[in-house]
Amino acid sequence: MTLRFPPLLLGPTTKGFWSPTPVTRSEFVAAGHTLTDGSLTWPVLTLDADAVVHNIGQLASFTADRGLAFAPHGKTTMSPELFSAQLDAGAWGITVATGNQLLSAHSFGVHRVLVANEVLDPTVLRWIAATLAAEPSADILFHVDSVAAVDVAAAALAGEGRLRVLLEVGHEAGRSGVRSGDQALAVAQHVARTPGVDLVGVSAYEGALVDADAARAFLAEVRAVAEMLVGAGLLQDHVILSAGGSAYFDVVADVLGGADVGGVPSTTILRSGAYLTHDHGTYAGSTPFTRIAGHLYPALRVWAQVVSTPEDGLAIVGAGKRDVPYDSGLPVVLRRHRAGQAPVAVVGWDVTRTNDQHAYLECGDPLGTALAVGDLLELGISHPCTAFDKWRAIPVIDAEQRVVDVVTTWF
Amino acid sequence: MTLRFPPLLLGPTTKGFWSPTPVTRSEFVAAGHTLTDGSLTWPVLTLDADAVVHNIGQLASFTADRGLAFAPHGKTTMSPELFSAQLDAGAWGITVATGNQLLSAHSFGVHRVLVANEVLDPTVLRWIAATLAAEPSADILFHVDSVAAVDVAAAALAGEGRLRVLLEVGHEAGRSGVRSGDQALAVAQHVARTPGVDLVGVSAYEGALVDADAARAFLAEVRAVAEMLVGAGLLQDHVILSAGGSAYFDVVADVLGGADVGGVPSTTILRSGAYLTHDHGTYAGSTPFTRIAGHLYPALRVWAQVVSTPEDGLAIVGAGKRDVPYDSGLPVVLRRHRAGQAPVAVVGWDVTRTNDQHAYLECGDPLGTALAVGDLLELGISHPCTAFDKWRAIPVIDAEQRVVDVVTTWF
Fold it and tell me: Keyword Zinc-finger, does the record have it (chains A, B) (predicted)?
């Protein structure tokens, strides 16, 4: 797929870019800027070019080796440039979470989209049916987990067009998805008697489970549900199985991979999204590459200045809730940059809380590296999804801190 | 001031707007849409037209009655349309928190900006000096709280132009700002001997203090610092005092208001921002209008559908960390809308947690109002700042849910 990138001028309203006069992305990149030449300002989120290329290659190899189709979760980045890079590396399509994300991805030119969520808005349902009817290359899948949701879909269609749905299987204390085989059967039977709605597979989300063993047990139930539905004649000809956060995709491959379900040919679509940039926090500890061969590099860093050192052991940094994730771990301080000095690792200082535009760094060790007003800090983040959604344009930098590209986000 | 609004097309990438074909804001408004006519989709954040007009009027009256200048904090909304409405109601200028917010506000045409933060980036400091020199109507103020920050400013100037700074006074366990009168004197004396940097007043932030008594005691110290600096000859001719979140602006008026500081004429600039939309959470409980005459209405609501009811007493709603604030209280469920039925209040259901794109509603009362898949819920939010920054365009609706305007945000 060749994607279209919406035009974005980098101008005075583009956070992180210090550009009183608007310029295009390509003009900005062609100017040959660096991180510290005054074309960017603090705070800014950067993407490490080498790390992203490496990470895309890791999952492309993993999915190819394990025979999986890949629809990386686009909600992570909502970036057409990053969707394009993943599709160029062989991804089947893009996963999204909402109607608006589906519309965005389609406007970028993505014609295979898995909506890993229930869709209840009649406007969106009608658009899906119309798009599937009008565009032979389009494939749009979404989840159903209730009789009511199937009825909403059928009512939206009003006899016009067809929809392709995946039955979502959930787990106790989890999010959406049927909680038992009986419920799965009831929903699938209801789909079978609903004109215009076609059941094409089974989907699940294992990423919030506590460990790989729990994910393995749950995904075995998901496969069993799919086999039961095949046995009941409710899934025929071809079965789609889908799952996958960025914590247990090895287990997804083990349990849901393979060429058939109960004798019916199958395709398994992996949906991992956060792998793309990895992180210095939650995913650093939970990636499957702690269990299998391979490696991901953290690709996102926030650069922010120390704006105040008002008390001993306290430094106030100019990056806050609008700039860094705080929902799944706070940023970690990597290095200090000071004019005329080599960068040094910052030891003993932790981000302890954030305000809208500030982070509080506290030093538990009075012998820790000293921070001074005006120092530029390099912060690692935890949870890529809530980093990307705070920035509309992100400079991509190489190992020499040259700006080699700019990616955009559309949240 | 007549502001400029950056053009924004409402198109497929505009969250909340269901617009496969891009249209301008004025085209969208002229089309006479309503909340539920299919031109919007879920989740969507809406702004209540009447409530915003009322709230702007309340603070315009309050500041006029108390003789305060008003520079509402623009970080809350970063919306030129809402900046304009506040300036039209008599605000002196706009407060911002960062260099990029300053550049944005200036690009909108705001020529009086208070940066309620230290500014350490030489690029930004040079731009401020150049703008003050080039634009006679411009006034740009920012905070200093250290000798180092004054030196960074002077080094950035390199002898060219002048900067106008406010000495920031902080409090223990607070954010930035000097912690003592001795520190204040040292910084002010350093400013006095630094060419190109002019001390024009004293600033503080009282909004994170525990109660109004604590705010009153702290602000009395702030006034005392200003009087001490006047006495030392370090503030002359005219003194600016500034403070003000949205929790204690009555106390700011009481303690920092008035026409002089130590016999020198003074202006007090209030910076409250969150008052504009108020909320159903943290500010509902902490607004000064619990102590003084007046009232604010909550103006922000998120509309989202129930996408799944997978277990008894659990409903999954299609709005998550990308859509609703979760840093200072979770959303509250106001009303349920179901086709063909009158809206009903939802009792007994609480949002207990959020994922990226979902909220978990749990019912502690088995007799609580039933929620069903497809129901549209109206959610109130807590903390306006982290609501605005999740949306690029926000429909403004009237009491009949007609879309009467669209405001844009530039984070």
Answer: no
pLDDT single digits (tens) A207-265: 999 999 999 999 999 999 999 999 999 999 999 999 999 999 999 999 999 999 999 99
Contacts of A38 in chain B (CB under 8 A): 122-123
Structural domain span for residue B251? 111-272
Do A248 and A313 lie in one domain? The reply is: no
- Tell whether B360 is covered by a domain: yes
The number of domains in chain B is 2
* Same domain for A303 and A258: no
Each residue's pLDDT tens digit, A1-12: 799 999 999 999
CA–CA distance from A151 to each of A194, A235, B271 (Å)?
Answer: 8, 19, 51
CB contact under 8 A, A12 and B107: yes
Pair B157, B238 in one domain: yes
Which residue among B172, B385, B411 sits closest to A15, beta carbon to beta carbon?
Answer: B411
pLDDT of residue B368 exceeding 70, the answer is no
CATH of the domain at A375: 2.40.37.20
Largest Cα–Cα separation, chain B = 73
Comparing CB atoms, the residue among B13, B100, B174 nearest residue A15 is B100
Nearest by CB: A41 against B107, B121, B307: B121
In terms of CA atoms, which chain A residue is nearest residue B15?
Answer: A100
Contact pairs from chain A to chain B, CB under 8 Å: 215
Query: Which one of B272, B305, B322 terminates a domain?
Result: B272
Instruction: Give chain B positions within 8 Å (CB) of A172.
Output: 311
Residue A395: is the preceding peptide bond cis (ω within 30°)?
no
Measure in Å the smallest separation between the Cα of B90 and chain A Cα atoms.
24
Q: Longest Cα pair distance anywhere in chain A, in angstroms?
A: 73
CA distance to partner chain A, nearest, from residue B259 (Å): 30
Q: Is residue B100 part of a domain?
A: no
